[in-house]
Amino acid sequence: MSTRNEILDYTKRDKMPHVFCPGCGNGEVMHGMLQAIQELQWDPTQILIVGGIGCSSRVATYTIFDSLHTLHGRAIPFAIGAKLANPQLKVIIVTGDGDASAIGGNHLIHAARRNMPLTVFIINNNTYGMTGGQFSPTSPIGTISATSPCGHVEEPFSITDLLVGAGAPFVARTGTLYYLEMIKLMKLALKKNGFAAIDIITQCPTNYGRPNRIPKAYDLLKMQSDLLIPKDKYDTLTDEERAGKMARGIIRDIDKPTFLDHYNACVLSTKKAKVML
Amino acid sequence: MPLKADLWQGAHAITMGALKAGVNFFAGYPITPSTEIAESMSLMLPREGGVFIQMEDEIASISSLIGASLAGAKAITATSGPGFSLMQEGIGYAQMVEVPLVVVNVMRGGPSTGLPTKPTQADVMQARWGTHGDHPSIVLCPSSVRESYYLMIRAVNLSERFRTPVIFLTDEVIAHMRERVEINLNDKIYVEPRLQPKDKTDYKTFQPDERLVPHPANYGTGFRTVVTALYHDETGFQNTAAEVAYRFNKRIVEKVEKYIDEIAEIEEYNVDNAELVFFSYGCTHRTVQQVIHDANNPKWGYLKLITLWPFHDKLITKKLEKAKILVVPELNMGQMVHEIHRLFGSSKKIVQVNRWDGEMITPEQLRKAVLEA
């Protein structure tokens, strides 16, 4: 178990206070990620944290590692470039539900399809917090938001179903309520040789909670225990029983060759090929 | 020893020039008429130990270039009109965080899907002002296959020297044309090195040197490189204070504008004696060459832009001061001619010759326009 100080050493203390609101789940995710990295005893000089745009993506900027705060939705292709240019780098993406599954949805599924060796932590708070609480692709039907004042009318994405469909070898889901499980899953995702993503359900009391009359972080966290059902138990439920619930834990963990495995094999054969231009 | 003559396509010359300049990363998305560059890169780069990847779209392509460049690669992409439009946000990002990379735009007929297989020169202003905000721009434009090779090397070098994205603006004619070239691929060519910091104790990611250029350490070298496209101070951490924003934006523009003499390149013929000067760039220059050759008129000359942007006001004004008539042929409705109007107003007769139907300006058309002037 790492100590509080060891984890704080991974943060830019001179840049505190951070931008996160009181009760926000981003701090828990950031702390959990740093603890996972600390417990894995990774060389801090070989870690690159990449974020997109939004509250979630600011996590990257507060760590002491090499960091890259990118464009909205584009964290994954930026990370792919860095990883392919220097495959020794451990590239971790911290993104949000809007960043990863709306504007960046295309990049997310294609990175999963390619089995690009990246770790993706999706901080899923069902809202665009930084712009003042508009609905996101994961907001449940009926959500009151700044752009759905009469209640949200669209079906939400299940990010884990999306990623399994796209071919990701490691997919998990957890919530900030399950802090120790989150760290355990993060360590597995970080160690995975291949595309590994965790959908992390978090609370946004300011811009999701308040308009939906759940303004306290405590109440939002408590709701996670009704929402998130352990995977093995979830699998035994009927479709009716599954309504309004999601599986948590490891959703999928398989081994398959990564993009780099295929690419390196291809390079060997290309070197023997004739040039025809 | 005479060089062996080869028949090269413009696209191939771009690939060969890029490899000669040390490019080891290419990401792109298929689009006519630029695809030949991606195709030759996909064959050549893996052999050279580099990375080729076909991304899911042009936005992903430019994004992965930025990530690769920050991790130490020399990275380029190639696209055309619609893809170039999609890349604009990423090009702005690269301006903001000072990332060396080269975007090849093979101009085709626009707007929108337009004329995919036909040439225009209608992206000249987009290459300068396509992304939002005030920013510097280095835009180079070749008018032959041979020049495409050497100019591509220069594009990569300038992007490293100034730590800024460079636009290699060519067109369907020059990129698809096959021409006789005599190039020694083993020639010693200057390759601009990626300068790296030495001292970790006082390291600030965006500390500019005396030429106003910062030298961020490549990722993974233990320097803790901090990158954001929010306004940032020298440490790289976001800082949106007014004085920081003022200083930063001024610096990234000045780092290019102050060294315009290093960047601006032109080619001239008989400009000192000419009363009539053709002012052109890219494929249109080939028509000008033919007309000048056929006319053999001692009072005619040409000035060809190789660097379109930054536009060197002083140099162009000086070169053209003796001319009475300026003829500006362009495959668009008149874009670069605005710069000529800006410099000379009504002090000279300015003749525009334009075409935007996907066909070249023919020597006959240009000759006729001149005789009518």
Reported for the largest beta sheet of chain B, the result is:
8 strands, mixed
Order of helices and strands of chain A: HHEEHEHHEEEHEHEHHEHHEH
Low-confidence stretches of chain B: none
Structural class of the secondary elements of chain A?
A: alpha/beta
The computed structural class of chain B is alpha/beta
Total of DSSP H or I helical runs spanning 4+ residues of chain A: 12
CATH 4th-level superfamily of chain A: Thiamin diphosphate (ThDP)-binding fold, Pyr/PP domains
E-strand count of chain A: 10
Mean pLDDT metric of chain B: 97
What's the gyration radius of chain A in Å? 19 Å
Q: Give the N-to-C terminal Cα separation of chain B.
A: 48 Å
CATH-wise, what's the superfamily of the largest domain in chain B?
Answer: Thiamin diphosphate (ThDP)-binding fold, Pyr/PP domains
> Overall pLDDT of chain A, averaged?
95
Q: What CATH architecture label of chain A applies?
A: 3-Layer(aba) Sandwich
Counting structural domains of chain A, the number is 1
Can you name the CATH architecture of the largest domain in chain B?
A: 3-Layer(aba) Sandwich
Overall tally of domains of chain B: 2
